[in-house]
Amino acid sequence: MTLALGTKLGPYEIVSPLGAGGMGEVYRARDGRLDRDVAVKVLPASFSRDADRLHRFEQEARATAALNHPNILAIFDIGVHDQSPYVVSELLEGETLRQRLTQGSLSVRKAIDYALQISRGLAAAHEKGIVHRDLKPENIFITKDSRVKVLDFGLAKLTSPQESKSDFPTLTLQTEPGVVLGTMGYMSPEQARGRAADPRSDLFSLGTILYEMVSGKRAFHGETPADTISAILTKEPPDLSETNRSVPPGLERIVRHCIEKEPQARFQSAHDLSFDLEALSGFSGSTAAASAAVKPVAHGWRFRALLTAILVLGALAAGFLFGRRRMPGAPAFHQLTFRRGTILSARFAPDGQTVIYGASWEGRPMELFSTRADGVDSRDLDLHNAEILAISASGEMALLLDRQFGVGWDSTGKLARVSLSGGAPREMMDGAQNADWSPTGSNLAVVRQAGSKYRLEYPPGKVLYESNAWISHARVAPKAEGIAFIDHPYMGDDGGSIMFVDLSGNTRKLTGYFESAWGLAWSPSGKEIWFTAAVIGANRILQAVTLSGKHRVLLSGAGALNLEDVAHDGRVLMIHNTARRVAIGLAPGESHERDLSWLDWTNPSDISPDGKWFVFSEQAAGGGGGYSVYIRKTDGSPAIRLGEGRSWGLSPDGRWVLSSPLRKPAQLVALPIGVGEPKQLTSDSVDHEFGYWFPDGHRIAFIGSEPGRGVRTYVQDLAGGPPRAVTPEGVYAFLISPDGQLLLCGDSANSFSIYPVESGSPRPLSATFSRDVPVSWSNDGKSVYVLTRREVPAHLYRIDLATQRRERVRDFAPSDPSGMVTGVSSAILAAHANAYVYGYPRLLSDLYIVDGLN
Predict the structure, then answer these.
(1) Chosen domain end from 533, 563, 579
(2) Would 55 be classed as within a structural domain?
(3) Do 335 and 441 fall within a single domain?
(4) Which among 25, 37, 187, 229 could bridge 20 via Cys, Cβ 3.0 to 4.6 Å?
(5) Residue 73 sits in which domain range?
(6) Is 667 inside a domain boundary?
(7) Are residues 616 and 483 part of one domain?
C-alpha cells in the first residue's frame, strides 16, 4: 500500500516516504498529540487476512515495545489502516549498516563498537524470550551520533515466502519445523536446514555481520541461493587476517566462535559475546565498553604460570618511588616481598594486618611465611612444602601440602588444617586442589579430583559442580549462599570463566571466556566477585562482576596481576608476576645446548627423526589470541610461523604439522610446512585435546571427549568415518609404538598400561612408571624413554618394556633454578636421543598490598 502525503493513520499524519522493502513501506509521520515526528511502517494487507498471523503480529509488537533498550528501535504504537497493519516507532536520522558498507569495510575499532551495541540489544531481547531470526545489515541502523539500533525485532518470523523480493531474499519465516528461517547469507546452519532458531542463531548472524564489517566481504556468498546455503552448511570463510592485516587475533577468535556450524560450539548467550567484545574494545562509555583486558577464547596445555609480562608495572613504579603517597583517587602500592622466587598463594589473617603467604625463594621448596601489612620483614613459619588456601575467622589455616603438578597448572595435594598460632598440620584429604572456609569457619568448600572428574563440594562430600577439566579459586560467599569459582575448560590451561553455584547446585556463568584467569575473591560488600584475568595473552587485570553479570574494571596496567585476597576495608592482596616458558635444545652433532625460545611461551611438541627441526606453539601474548604454530631448526635459525592453533605432531613424511585451533569443540587440522593449504582432518562433536600421527600417516590418535562424557583416547582414519574409542574414559595415550600397533596410556592415578590399537586386553606396566612422563618410544619398539615428573634436574631414563629395567640416559636442568622452575615440563627426542629440545616455565613474583580501590 502506497500512502499519499497528508494521509491520517489515527493520530499520525504522513509527511514523506522514507523507504520500502519486503516487510512493507516506511514513512515519516507527524504525531500531533505529542508534537513529534515518528516513523510509520505499513505492513502488507495480507497480514490482516490471516487472523492468527495478525494476532501474532500484535503479540510480537507488544513484546518488542516492552524491551525499552537503547540499541533496539523503540516501538510507540500499532494499528490498522485500510486492513493494513502498521507499526509506529522512533524516527532515526542516519543510515542502515548496508548503506554504510557500500563505502567499504569499517575500521576494526568501529566494527567492534557496532558489534558490541548490537550484542547488547540482542541480550536484552533474548532475556525477554524474543529472537530476531533475520539479523542482517539492512536491519541495523547507524544514527548520526554512531548509536546502533536493531530494527524489526520480533517481526521477522511473520514474513511469508511471497514477500521475499531481494537478491538474498528473506525466506519462509514461520516457526514450524522444516521451514527455512532467515535471510540467505546471514542465516545460521540450523535455519538453513529448516530447524528451530534460538538466540544462538542470532549470534551466528551477528558473526557474519561482524565479519563483513571488518573485511568488506560477505562471510557466506554464492552465485546462486543453493551455493550460498551450501557455503553456510559446509564451508568456512577466509581468515579475517587475509582481508585485513590489522585484525587482532582476539577479534578473529570472536568471529569464528560466533559462526561455528553447531549451536553448542558458539557463544551460548549474547551476554557472553558482549562481555568478550567489551573486553576486546578497551574503551568505556555508552557506545564502547567498560573494559579491561583483551579477549581470548582459548587454551592449550601449558604451564603458563601467571602472566608473561613486563617486569615492572607503571603503577607499581609509583609505589616504589612514593610509598603510600599518591594522587587523590589513585591506588597506592605497598611492596611486601623482595627476594628472588615465586609466590603461589597469600591471605590476610583475621586481624587484617597479618599476611600469610607461600613462597619458593632462591630455588628452595615452597615454605610458609608471615609478614605485616605495614612492614617488609617476613618470618618463616617452619611449614615446608605448604601453601596457604584459606584462613578462618577463628584463625585456623587450610593448607595444601606436597602439591604435585599434572598437566599445566592442574595440580593436587593433601588438604590439611593447622592453627595460625602454631602446631603440626592435620591432614584431611588427598587429591585436593583448592579449599575455602565458610564465613563462620565451621565448614570447608573443597575442590578435588575424583577419577577423571573434578568436583566442587560444599560441605565435603556434597557435590555442587563437576567438570571434565579442572576448577580453581573456589571462594564461599560472605553469607554462604553459594560459591564463586573459576571454571577451566581446557586441561591444565589457566583460561576460563567466572562462575557461581548456589547450595542447590544451580550454576551461573557470570563472564565470557578469558585466555588467562587466575585469582578470585569476594568484594568487601559481598555484592561483587573480584578477579584477575586477561582476554588475550597473560596481562591479567583486576576486574569485578556481579551475580547479575554486570562487569567493571578496577585496576589495569602493564604487567601481570594475580588477586589473592580482599580485606574487609577493601585493601587488596596482589601478586605481580613475570613468567616465561623457555625451550633449550641440542642439535645433532653438537656438544652444547642453546636457548631455542622464540617468543614468550615456547612449548615444544615434536622433533624430526634427524633432530634438525622441531615444532612448537607460542601460547601466550606473543602467540596471539589463537596461539601460533611454528617450526624451527635446532641450530638456532629463525622460526617459521605455520598458522594459528596449538601444535601436536610432525607427520611421518615431514610435510605436515598436526594442530588444533582454539575453538570448542576443538578439531584437528594439518598445517603444511611447505606449499599448500591447511587440511581440516576432523569435523564432529568430539573435543580433540591432543593428537598424534600413526607411523603410516593414514591415521591419527587423539585424546578427547564427547558431549557428556569423560576424556579418553580415539583413533581416526583420515580416509573417513567416525572416530573410534580405543580406551575407557579417563585413560589417555602418550605414545604410539613404531609399528603403530600399541598405545602407551596413562590415567589420572598415574598408572600406565599398553593398549592394543585394534583388539585385545591392556597390559599394565610396573608401578615404577608412576613418577614418570613418557616422552618417546625407542626405534626398535623394545623400550620407552621417560622423564622424571617435576624434578630439577629432570632425569631421562630408558626403560626396557620386557624387564622394566631403568637406564639413566641424561639430565635436563636449567642453569638458574630460582623462580619456581618446578621441573622440566616437556621434552622431545630425535632418533636415539642424539638431539633433543626440552622446555620449562619460570615464574618470578612480588607481593603487594593495594589500597584505594573502589
Answers:
(1) 579
(2) yes
(3) yes
(4) 25
(5) 1-91
(6) yes
(7) no
Q: How many independent structural domains does the chain possess?
A: 3
Q: What is the pLDDT of residues 481-537, one digit of tens each?
A: 999 999 998 776 788 999 999 999 999 999 888 888 999 999 999 999 999 998 776
* Residues 534 and 289 sit within 8 Å (Cβ to Cβ): no
**Under 8 Å between Cβ of 60 and 110:** no
In the structure grid, which three cell numbers stand for residue 211, read together? 565479519
Is residue 81, in this structure, part of any structural domain at all?
yes
Which position has the higher pLDDT, 778 or 50? Answer: 778
Confidence at residue 181, expressed as pLDDT on a 0 to 100 scale: 38
Here the cell at position 736 is 604410539
What distance separates the 2 farthest-apart alpha carbons in the chain? 99
> What's 569's domain CATH number?
2.120.10.30
> Residue 828 above 90 pLDDT?
yes
Determine contact, residues 119/274, Cβ cutoff 8 Å.
yes
Same domain for 694 and 563, yes or no, is no
CA angle 781, 784, 789 (to 5 degrees): 165
pLDDT of 176 over the 80 cut: no
Domain identity same for 588 and 563: no
Residue type, 643: G
CA distance 833 to 303: 24
The helix or strand, by DSSP H or E, that contains position 488, with its residue range, turns out to be strand 482-488
Instruction: Give the H or E element holding residue 272.
Output: helix 270-281
Q: pLDDT class for 657, splitting at 50, 70, 90?
A: very high
Contact call for residues 150 and 135 (beta carbons, < 8 A): yes
Query: What is the per-residue pLDDT across 185-228, written as a single tens digit (0 to 9) for each?
Result: 899 998 888 887 889 999 999 999 999 999 999 999 888 877 88
User: Amino acid identity of 140?
Assistant: I
3-state helix, strand, coil in the chain (%, to 5): 15, 40, 45
